[in-house]
Write a structure and sequence with these properties.
about 180 residues; alpha+beta; single chain
C-alpha cells in the first residue's frame, strides 16, 4: 500500500544572499548553529554523518556535533562502532546539519581525521559520569539481549570505577 507524503510547504524566510554568508563557510555555520540554539530548537547540534562501507555502500546516522573551529567540526564516538570501522577504512564523510524551523541546512564533505588522545581525554573528562559509563558499556552497532543487559553493564562499571574518575575507553574518541 502506498503512503503519500505530505506535500511541500512554502517557506517564509527572505532569500539568502551570498553577502550574508561571508567568505568563511564555517563562520556562517557557527552563526546558524547559534541561531538554532537561541531559538531553543531541540538538539540543534544533531548532525547526520554519512560514511561508506568497504563495498562503497553509504551509511548514515545522527550524532552530536561537539565543536566547530577554523579546521572543521568535531564529534566523538565509539571507534569500534560501524561508523568508526567505516571511517578507519575510508577516512572521509559527509555531514548535514538541518534546522527545519529556520529553513536552513549545512552540508560538509571531506576527509576525517582521528583526534589525538589528549583532545579525546579532555573532552571525555568533562562528560557527565553516566555518559562516561555508557561509553564503556555500549558496544555501538552491536545487538544486545535487552535493555537490562546494558543496565547491568553500566552498574558493573559503576562499581568498578566507584572510587576513581572514569577513564576514557581506548576505543572511544573524537574525529575532525
Amino acid at each position: 500500500m502506498e503512503q503519500p507524503v505530505r506535500s511541500h510547504r512554502e517557506y517564509d524566510r527572505p532569500e539568502l544572499s551570498l553577502d550574508e554568508l561571508g567568505d568563511d563557510p564555517l563562520v556562517a555555520y557557527r552563526r546558524w548553529l547559534a541561531e538554532a540554539e537561541a531559538a531553543d530548537l531541540p538538539e540543534p547540534g544533531a548532525i547526520t554523518v554519512a560514511t561508506v562501507d568497504a563495498d562503497g555502500r553509504p551509511d548514515a546516522r545522527i550524532v552530536l556535533l561537539r565543536e566547530i573551529d577554523e579546521r572543521g567540526i568535531i564529534f566523538y564516538t565509539n571507534r569500534r562502532s560501524m561508523k568508526g570501522r567505516q571511517l578507519a577504512a575510508v577516512p572521509a564523510a559527509a555531514v548535514v546539519s538541518y534546522w527545519d524551523a529556520l529553513h536552513r541546512q549545512v552540508r560538509l564533505r571531506g576527509s576525517v581525521h582521528v583526534l589525538d588522545d589528549a583532545a579525546s581525554d579532555a573532552y571525555f573528562a568533562g562528560r557527565p559520569r553516566p555518559s562516561q559509563l555508557a561509553a564503556w558499556a555500549s558496544e555501538q552497532s552491536e545487538p544486545i539481549i535487552d535493555r537490562s543487559e546494558l543496565e547491568r553493564r553500566v552498574a558493573e562499571l559503576d562499581r568498578r570505577f566507584a572510587d576513581v574518575e572514569v577513564p576514557r575507553p581506548p576505543h572511544w574518541g573524537g574525529y575532525r
